[in-house]
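dumping this here before i forget
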Amino acid sequence: MVTSESEFGKCRRCGSHIPHVPGRVGRKPEYCGTECRGRAQRERDGLVDLTRPRAGLPLGRYIAEDLQLMATGLLNAEYEDREELTALLQRARELAREIDYYVAAAVRDAKAAGQNWAAVAKAAQVSIPTARSRWGELEVQRQMERRAREHAAATHLGKAPPKGASFEEGPAGRQGEAGPLRDGPGRAQSLLADALAHLHSRSGMAIRDIAQQTGWSPSYLSRVLSGERSPGWDVVAALAAVFDHAVGDLGVLWDLSQGRIPASRPSFDMAKARLHAALRGLYLAAGSPPIERISELSSVDGQDIVDVLQERLVPTWEMTGAFVKAVGALPADVRPLWEAVHYGFLNQWDPSVGERPDGPVLPGPSGGQG
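structure:
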């Protein structure tokens, strides 16, 4: 019986193809030569550090991004307080399973970058034989294949994305029907790009004219507006000036796109300003849809929405979360900003000085102003 070329596959060490040798008998070779076989043995024994990383992308980073989305989905489900316990626990089980996959991928990346088994075992607080058995190359490959099958099955079954709706720009600038929440890596950068693109569309200016006024090339500006490039704050400020829009409305979106963490204990006035700016920025990113449509999607009174956007009203968390979901963002992104407002209010009151100051204007029980 002649063994086909595909049966020999690739070298376990370097990934190169192992050619079929006519007449070869016995077990299939696992390595392309003695060098890879010997080096693999030394790696298994924890006796050598790799001097160069093996080819491949940091798989752990991509799984970590998926983990963030899954955790955000669980957090949003808690905020909504609508899902049954069974659904919540299913989310938790999927999250725990994804963490196991992340650990395997992180070890794989560390090994590819030059870590030996002794270092891996120390980091994982297990013995070298346990680490090698748990996260050996073939075992990690099996785990990643299993993960791929699970994700493919979930897609085939049509698992719904996180609940919520967003506005998508239809043809000729017409507001389209509500769509699913934006998700995926670069979501915050996408929101910033959407807001800038909406301001550009509203201005009616040609990219060439914007380039002349700002000093950046048309191709670079096009990539910024499409979300392909993450702009610096100077670029965002310059575009806001050209579009004649308050740059503060874009500040929180830019912070989110850069992964910047705001001050943990801002003043009450600063916290209010940041919350309102974030909500206006998300409104811009949604294409400034009609207030009536947001009210319909969020079940928030239309006048309350206007008052929030014009900084006459500090919304409750329920109102904030509903508004944010209606414009296509995630409530978890603005939760710290909302909490900072209430922390700032409580922190500004010194009982030894006098009476408690007036609190933020909040809507009454029926949804109108109290």
